[in-house]
Amino acid sequence: MKLQEIFSPKEYSHSDVDKMVYSRDASEFEGECQAVVWPTSKEQIIHMLKFGSSDGTHFSVRGAASNTFGACVATRSVVVDMSRLHKVLEWGSDFVVVESGILLSDLLRSLEKKKLIFPIKPLEHPVCTIGGMLAMNCYGLDVYYGPIAQWVEELEVITGKGDRILVSGAQIKDFIGMEGNTGIIYSAKLKLLQEPQEKTVSIFKFNTLSAMMDKVLILDKNPQVLSIEYFDDYCSNFLQLGQAFHLLVEYKNDSGLIKNSEEIEKIDEMKEKLQHMLVNKKYTQKEDPKIPLEQIPKFLHWAQKNGVPCFGHMKLRILHPCLREGSKLHSEMYPFIQSLGGEIVGQYGTGMKRKRFVSLDKKIKYKNLKEKYDPSKILNRGVLFD
């Protein structure tokens, strides 16, 4: 059996143009694409992976390929574009089952008509696919909802061996956040909300980092606080808050000074616009270190000293230093994060760019899962580990 026997001529391409287009994702890494396939059924995926296991063909799975750390770069592999698996398979009063190639923006429009809510909405939501979000275990802009793993009831997965399995409970973690290394997620049963989390908001201004961190320590102990968003003076100036450090604090009760829903909606839009503004100023390399709370001041001082704009989520301990296109500050920043006892990967996945910084414990975990679900190592070679 050959791939051309599994996929129709409209679902398979060996053209030089397609191979060039699919050789990379949104990162700086250039790969090598041997062919492209567009599955339209789970049966095709099963046959494809069984073929790969016996033939030694490697596959790189992708959704929108918007990842900037090389999580879906072709590595002498066939690229599997999941975009044609985009159906809603089942509706419920508090859940929806979708194929993994569906765009989040399309799903959100369907949910709006039914007056239902899926709360994980990343910045890149117009192009994000559910499968890509699951592969990264991403957060949305409203981080208090947690990562997408918390909103999954069940997955239908095709393992690297070509086995179709239904996954729920703790086993979900064997596939969510694994960047496509253990199997191809065909569909997901997602939990939904009837109404969004009610909240009020306060904005605090500080002239010094030490005064701001004192406030963070107080807020962090308040059970009514949903999130504590930090903006440095550079980001604050972009948002027309003034040249100072700011905390944007969201409460689940009426403790916040801003209670009007329209004003709160404008604040949410402001948070979303910030990242676009930074990109327009060529700060395109947004990082996501997770740093112990007591060490965050040291990192913020480093960012200030190096002219690196920074914002982040104090309750998650995840910061977003934004480096300019072509910056070499990674070589200094990554070891510094580790010296603070922090994790280089906090929110956006590991990919090719950051796999050498994966801890030994995680490497062992990934290796064991790989051997369990993809013993022939045909999926996403070079991502997470070689």
Description:
The protein has 386 residues and is of the alpha+beta class. The protein folds into 2 domains: 1-197 and 349-386, Uridine Diphospho-n-acetylenolpyruvylglucosamine Reductase, domain 3, CATH 3.30.465.10; 200-339. It has 11 helices and 15 strands. It has helices at 3-6, 16-21, 42-55, 104-113, 130-136, 209-220, 233-238, 261-280, 296-305, 330-339, 360-373; strands at 12-13, 32-37, 59-62, 75-81, 88-91, 95-99, 152-159, 164-167, 183-191, 200-206, 225-231, 245-251, 285-286, 310-313, 318-323. The protein has a 6-stranded antiparallel sheet, sandwiched between helices. A hairpin with a 4-residue loop joins strand 7 (152-159) and strand 8. The longest helix is centred in the C-terminal third of the chain and has 20 residues, at 261-280. The chain starts with a helix and ends in a 13-residue tail after the last helix.
User: Looking at the structure, what is the overall shape?
Assistant: globular
DSSP summary: helix tally? 11
**Helix/strand/pairing category:** alpha+beta
C-alpha Rg, in Å?
21 Å
- Range of strand content: 15-25%
Uncertain regions: pLDDT < 50 for 5+ in a row? Answer: none
Order of helices and strands: HEHEHEEEEHHEEEEHEHEHEHEEHH
Please, what is the average pLDDT? Answer: 93
Which fold name corresponds to the CATH topology of the largest domain?
Answer: Uridine Diphospho-n-acetylenolpyruvylglucosamine Reductase, domain 3
CATH-scheme architecture of the largest domain? 2-Layer Sandwich
